[in-house]
Amino acid sequence: MTLERGLVLERGVVSRALDGLLEVAKERGLEEIPNCYYRDDGLELWDIILKFVKGVLSYYCTDCDVKDNTELKAWLNAIFHSGFLQNKQAGFPKSFSSVEELVRFVTMMIFTVSAQHAAVNNGQFDYGGRMPNFPSSLQLPPPKRKGLATEDTITAALPSVSCTVNTMAIVYLLCSNTCDRMSPEPSGHEHEHKTMEWNGMIIQIYSTFLYCFLYMGKCSY
C-alpha cells in the first residue's frame, strides 16, 4: 500500500515543480475562457504576491548572494527528497542562479499554500455539506447499465446518517480557519532594525494591495 501511494505521488508531481498559475491556465485551456474567476482572481493575487516577494528578497539578495548558496541548496535538497520523493522527472532545481529565479520559486510556494489551497479547499463544506453531492460511501454497488437506477436504489445506496454527520464534520473542520495564525506585523525591538523597518513597509504595501483586491475588486500598482 505504501509503495502504491508513493508511485501515485511521484506521478502527481511530474512537470509541476515550478509551474506558475499562468502556465497551468494555458495547459488546461483556461486562457481564453471568459469570466474565469479562478484564473482572473488567481493571476491578480499571483502578481500581488510576486511584488511582495520581490520587494523583500531584492533587499536582502543579489545574484551573487543566491549563486552557490549552501543554505538554499540544502533547502532545495530537503524539498526534493521529502516533497518530490526524489523524482528527477519533476524538473526540480538543484540551485538558484539569480534573485529572479528565487523570487519565482518563493512566489509559487506562497501562492500554492495560500490562494491555491484556499481555492480548492475552502469550498468543500459548501459543496460537500449537502450529502448527495459528496457521499462518503455507497451502500450498494453502482448499476452496470444505464436506466437501472431508481429513486429507491439511489436512496438505499447513500450512507447512513451517522456516517454523513461525521463526513460533514470533517469537511467543516478542513474549511475552518486555524486558531494558531501568526501576525505578519513585526513587534517589539525588531522595529529598531533597519531591515525590519523595510519588511514592515513592504508588508503594509502588500496588505494595501490585498485589501484593494478583496474589498474593492481592483488593485492599482
What do these coordinates show?
This protein has 221 residues and is an all-alpha fold. The protein has a domain of 85 residues. 60% of the residues lie in helices and 0% in strands. It has ten helices and no strands.
Averaged pLDDT: 76
Number of strands: 0
Name the helicity range: 55-70%
The count of helical stretches stands at 10
User: Distance between the terminal alpha carbons, to the nearest Å?
Assistant: 50 Å
Could you spell the SSE succession in H and E letters?
HHHHHHHHHH
* Structural class by secondary-structure content: mainly alpha
- Described by the principal axes of the CA atoms, the overall outline is elongated
Strand residues, percent:
under 5%
Low-confidence stretches: 1-5, 186-194
Main pleated-sheet profile: none
Please outline the helices and strands:
Elements: H1 2-13, H2 21-27, H3 37-60, H4 63-66, H5 70-82, H6 99-121, H7 124-128, H8 151-157, H9 161-175, H10 194-216
Helix pairs in contact: 3-6, 3-10
Provide the descriptors you would attach to this structure in a database record:
disordered N terminus; elongated; 221 residues; 60% helix; mainly alpha
Briefly say what this structure is.
Helix 3 packs antiparallel against helix 6 (99-121) and helix 3 (37-60) runs antiparallel to helix 10. It contains 10 helices and no strands. It has helices spanning 2-13, 21-27, 37-60, 63-66, 70-82, 99-121, 124-128, 151-157, 161-175, 194-216.
